[in-house]
Amino acid sequence: MRFGDLFKIFQKGSKAASGHKGKGKGSAPAFAWPPGIRIGVFGHTNTGKTVYFTVLNEECKISKKLQISVTDNATATEFLNNYRALWGLGTTSEVGTVVDFRGEKKFPESTATEKLLLFNAILDRSKKVSVVAYDYPGEAVSIAGRHDLTDKVVDFMAGCDGILFFYDPKIIGAELEAQARVASFVNILERLAPLKARLPIPIAVVVTKADVLAGFSGEEKVTLIGPDDEYIIAEDFESFLETMLENTKVAGDPSWSGSVRSVMVKLKDFLRIVIGRTLDFQFFFVSATGQTPEKIGTDIGRSLYTPPNKMQPIGVKEPFYWLLSAVMRNRSITRFRKVAKFITTICLLWIVLYSLPYLLHFGYMYSQPTKVETNILRPYNGNIGAASEAERLMIKNAYRNYAESWLVRTFFSEFEAPATRFKKYYETAHLKGATVTLDQYITQLTAMIADTTQWPTFRPSDSSLILSSEHKTLIAAIEGYHAGDTASVLYHSSGRILACWKFFLDAVSQPGSDAAWQLIHNQVGADRKFALKEMSEAEKRFGDVLLSQKAKKEQIAEEARTTAELGGWEARIAKISKNPSPDYRLDSAVAELEIIKGQLDKTANAQTIARIDAYIAEANKWNDLQSFHYRIDAAPDGSHLHVEVVDEGKTPTWAVQEQYVAGYQRGYDLKWKAGDQVYIAIDTGLACQWGKNAVDYKILDGKYSIFKMDGDVLFDNLRKTVRISFNPPLKKRIPEIK
Ligand SMILES: Nc1nc2c(ncn2[C@@H]2O[C@H](COP(=O)(O)OP(=O)(O)OP(=O)(O)O)[C@@H](O)[C@H]2O)c(=O)[nH]1
Ligand SMILES: [Mg+2]
Question: Which residues have C-beta atoms less than 6 Å from ligand 1?
Fold first, then answer.
């Protein structure tokens, strides 16, 4: 089969697949028709329908191409009666016997009632189909007047799988009648496919009684449109006519050519409707009798003929065979198209279903958490520490919703773990900063406990314990963590530290008691037993130092003894010098030395008084503005600082437009006096307003705030540390009693 042929088949198939819904379309059908391939023979009265069906049945008994076997009694009886009449076989029935004998040959009477013809047809000995055909009085389709059966016949035709239009060439001379017949068939076609829509079913013109046409010579004239000319059906009527007449079969025989032309000209209104609207079209010339019957008289409206002596049907099977083949081809193509459509739908459905999760995930869900995160953190330069609690929770929830969504868990599980990590990060982001800060407080407290000179002062006179402002601030800060969520690690850790601190204070206020130290020992041991896992390194060190202090306590007792032996005030002076706390050395120590000075004998202890005075003078210098030189040893990458010293309670103006960076060897200067506060602003990006609206601030307060600048300065929100060192070191500038 050539590619072109294949294309044609598809075009034909597509016609059948689309549009034709004749049977039972819309409202409930007015007439019920048996199932099977419905073949309509549309023919006016006397066109030879009844004779055709009879001869067809007879012909197909012995044919290989098309076999017909009648399936119901009524049809069999109808065929048999007409057959006997046409072939001139009579019957006589006596009791028990039926005998054939030669009878009068005659054509059947004009059909008076409808007859449903049911039979099975076998095409090419392989394809078996049940066929429903219909014989009826031709008047029913006449345009001239209404007939009882008109609606029924029209209904049958409208639901047909294929139609044969029977045309009687004998009426060619009757111009009006010929036109009326064409018009009534065009009516039917309009019902099948209104306007210019493609005709959904195969249609053929069957010129019956072709034996009366000049030049009709036999089988080779039966089918007009040869396989090579089929394309012309898709063109227009003029081209069609021209091609048909040029056809060698026709052209070779002038009288036949004339007959074909006159038939086609009469049918032009019909052909104009059909040509160009279908590829399933054919034109047949058939004769049921072969020879032209002899006229024997006239009846109302028609001449009477007698069938020829020998019935030699020509081309009777062809139209039926062609029509059934076309219907079946269309059916299989329709089936194929249905399967193709089904597969296409399944494929599309699969594509949509398969890509839907991807579209949803990558087109929408995937970007949701990062969008929320970016939008919230943009104003803070990406610093979560600067975001509020609600904002942090919003980001956390966005990641949680993403990670826990059904879609991600089902189809994109590899994204679940990273999203969960982000969620966890934002869950504890605030805690991380807090943990770092708490650890710093713990480390400071550990340093105080480690250094006995920083212990709270115990006054044996009234057994009172004096806590420095540093002690108080630090403990208050740690107490701040022992609030809120009682299940948090911070709550637990601060709780343990505070408990130990209480025991430590008891121990300090009972210098001679081992029991108090034993309690500390027990407490630290218990904490480690139950909570070692959640202890930070800082807390562990805190415990270590507390435990070691029991041993130190012995040492202190020893020192105390030695001091007592050395004599009162010298020992007190020595103790003062040992205390490294700037607050103590610059304030409390001065007050204490004044007291000692008052107790000393001016002449006997003149030298000592001079030493004390020198010390006090040095200490007092801190109350005046002094210059300090410092360097920034380390700071977060790309960051710079702004530093402003203000009087207590004042706010910085950030008027100095300078940026201080880590590693600048020449260092920086500032002027400071006791009570001043130091504001340090840190900027991490390029945007800089000389300290205004900085990424984070550190305010150093307290009377000797400058000492807080010496060493690590933690920026709480940023959770980054800046290391600053003074030159000369601040501790070296604290006066000593020489
Ligand atoms: N020349 C010729 N005449 C035929 C042929 N077949 C039928 N006729 C004539 O046409 C007449 C009508 O044939 P029918 O088969 O009864 O026609 P019909 O279409 O059934 O007519 P209604 O039943 O009235 O609708 C016959 O009586 C014959 O005279 C044929 O093959 N050749
Ligand atoms: Mg009839």
Answer: 43, 45-51, 107-108, 110-111, 137-138, 208-209, 211-212, 287-289, 292-293, 305
